[in-house]
Amino acid sequence: MVTEISAEAPVLDRRGDQSDEAARKKEFAVPSDQRFVLVTTDRTVVNDGKYKELQDGSTLYLLQNKDQVLPVATEENINFVPHYNTLIESGTFEYFAEGQKSLPCALAELVDNALSATAKNTEGRTIEIQLLFDRTFGKPAVVVLDNGCGMTSKQLNNWAVYRLSKFMRENSTFESERDTYVRPEPVPRSLNSDISYFGVGGKQAAFHIGDSVRMITKPINSPDVHELVLSKEEFQKKEQNKEDVFKGTILNRKPGDYSHVTSSERFLQEVIKEETGKDSFTAVVITGVCPEHIKYLKQDFSEWTRQLAHIYHYYIHGANGNHKTDNSLRSNVIPQIDILVTLRDKPSYSMNLRKVEDDMQTLYINSAVDTFEFKVKTSEGGTVDGVLRYHPFLYDKETYPKDLNVLQAPVEEDDDENESGTMNQARGKRDIFECFWNGRLIPYTTVSE
Amino acid sequence: MVTEISAEAPVLDRRGDQSDEAARKKEFAVPSDQRFVLVTTDRTVVNDGKYKELQDGSTLYLLQNKDQVLPVATEENINFVPHYNTLIESGTFEYFAEGQKSLPCALAELVDNALSATAKNTEGRTIEIQLLFDRTFGKPAVVVLDNGCGMTSKQLNNWAVYRLSKFMRENSTFESERDTYVRPEPVPRSLNSDISYFGVGGKQAAFHIGDSVRMITKPINSPDVHELVLSKEEFQKKEQNKEDVFKGTILNRKPGDYSHVTSSERFLQEVIKEETGKDSFTAVVITGVCPEHIKYLKQDFSEWTRQLAHIYHYYIHGANGNHKTDNSLRSNVIPQIDILVTLRDKPSYSMNLRKVEDDMQTLYINSAVDTFEFKVKTSEGGTVDGVLRYHPFLYDKETYPKDLNVLQAPVEEDDDENESGTMNQARGKRDIFECFWNGRLIPYTTVSE
């Protein structure tokens, strides 16, 4: 006799005393003179010890013997929800490949999102990277704050969903109000802030920087602030308690209400107090930042801010870039975009990326002897803008600028104990071309010869 | 008055007629002289039209007016299960970066899994790549078959779970039987078959090749075959019907039973008929293969089999590689690994990768004038084996072998309409070093100068 039963069925109530074989035979209507065995679909015999360990929903077979061939096929229900690591660790592998530059790249991902959020601002666009490392504020935190359009609770919920492209986001509870992606109008150098192409960006960047991310956001025309915390600790706790890992809570509250803030995160009080009076905003609050990251962000402050100034050069200085000497070459329209970086520690620093004068793009622009601009339309309706700059070897001197903080290609360890061997690309040589995607530098991209 | 109610609560039974405001006031115990409004947490007023569109589980506010400030914070339950595209599309981006070589790389991922599965075989290890393109068999299919240890239904379930590292796999229903990862014993050139480091490999490789993957597997010492189908079509159907996308069914059946096979997949009958008599095996059956892939696999058969022979050179020929002329240099132990490729079409081809004589590694080995071997122990206990080969320019002739099918670096289109700009790395120049990870070539990895 073969019976497929489920541990969910009442007949297999594991709370009762199931140790008596006779009782079980009665329960499964097995004649008392017949031998039977209860096995999992992996043919493990479910004896009394195993019985208690069984998980709910397990499919079991009632067989004459353990190895009896199944006379009929059976179907077993399974669940294969992705592991929460897809959400919190996916950045590890991506940013690992970028080596020393991984933190600036992760921060840039968050700046990308802020640029997208502020793209339709009618007044100035302000993006602040705050490094709150002074221990009097509580635990160390990295906050990326923008005065953009904010997110509705539905959009915040969808932000938390791991997916591979933003084109699949749901924006409204109501079918009739769903957004469809609209390609922005063409603007010079594609400075349309339509940067963050993949939906994975924000979460993986945040979890590359720390262990926990709190999104605080207020959409335009809403009286409510929405908050959502995703944290590694919380995921682990839920997994241990066999709870649904992908269930969470959005806190909806009025602006300025910090009654839920604990003393270890008292820096949040300041962040939340400043909410009142803002029409809309988004704050990405990252905690659980590891000591190495804190050390890098403090010690190499000028290096990584310089890298960010290079990446967002055209957003900061306009389509023509930062021409320092010849005003006639400057862009007519200077973008109203401020990217501010603040380090609150002892001592504190504050810096507007527009004031960076030695980012590579500024050096390239101001040392070129001649430039050639071109524009190409692709058959799919896209546009490629290009600039060739001429840096001759002139009067016994190389006019091509030197990178002040040259990125040393890491010495290949060729170590078969970690996967670095699979990641390190040849980057020993200097780039000749650089690619900007919608106005934003894509690190490490080079044009093939 | 602010009341947080849930659409799940019986008070908001949307099946009834809810169009009468007076009736609703009664239902929510609102005094008849008081105005009220029902809004979502995004402050969309739920009028009669919207009411019917509401999704189950929506949190609603009962407010005096739409913009009333929340006097108390409210919590809203959300769900953020990853989108199924993480499972079926993750390969798209990875393999996209590898351009023309994407199909051999995806097939190699499946060969990796087969090598791992057969690592403990006591008899010969056989891995077959079958391209079933003869339309008399039904729809076109790519089958990767191995005579390895197979998977239990629990392991098959876990195979389907998207996660980022195999170190987190669950192998048993029972806590007490969980496997922990054991690093294999050191062997020459690390030919331990412990290749597939990331858990994402198999699924993303399969979905890069086609739209549907059927895993058929029989573990050692089990009388049952387990089958699981993941298909894009099925995922889409479930999403449309708002069903749980990550719930599926494993079919458990006796070997050789193909009663569930439809005529459009009649090639499966052959695959399943051959099950009887095998102690264990795994077959990865991919359908929904697009015409371009079929064309490439047929037309460039010799090119991609040559690439696979290069990638698995040391698995096929042993730790010393394929020394064609000098037998004394050959490995003492030739691995009992056969990687067979069969194209069933008109005409049919069949090929054992060991017979490939012009893969790059064979050419390198047989043209080098001198070699220098070294071994380095890393501080973490790993070992790096290295071989330097000397290919001098000799008697007016370059002894470094030419790549017969040189991979042309794709012409950079610099097109801001697709993300290729973010992916193409500089690959114009020839590699000087190549990295093998546990004996398997990692494409595109180079040692930094």
Automatic annotation (TrEMBL), chains A, B:
InterPro entries: HATPase_C_sf, SMCHD1, SMCHD1_S5
Signal peptide: none
Region (Disordered), start-end ranges: 1-24
SMCHD1 ribosomal S5 domain boundaries: 358-449
UniProt-listed Pfam families: HATPase_c_3, SMCHD1_S5
Biased segments, Basic and acidic residues type: 11-24
UniProt protein name: SMCHD1 ribosomal S5 domain-containing protein
Organism: Ilyodon furcidens
